Amino acid sequence: MVQTPVWFVLDEGVIYVRTDKNSGKVKRVRNNPNVRITPCNIRGRPKGEWIDGTIQIANENESKHAKQLFNQKYGLRGKMLGIMYKLRKIEFVVLSIHFSSDETSRR
What we know:
alpha+beta; globular; disordered C terminus
């Protein structure tokens, strides 16, 4: 298990994460779609209950929608990160995390 704090947005019960397409997160998603998530502090220390879900690389429509949500949530900080990634020629990919109906009903 790899604990990884991420920037995220939540929309209609789906969590979207934006990351470098060559990151370890993307490699892990391709190998195993099962995830466990929990709220955490900036250092990655858990602050809540673990929830099981599945993760996948978002399709084009989900990615466009998630980009809009990231811009709304993170504003200038997000734009600065995007500029830094462009300068370093890093490409983003959006991951989507879905929860089973059992897990959703517990929240």
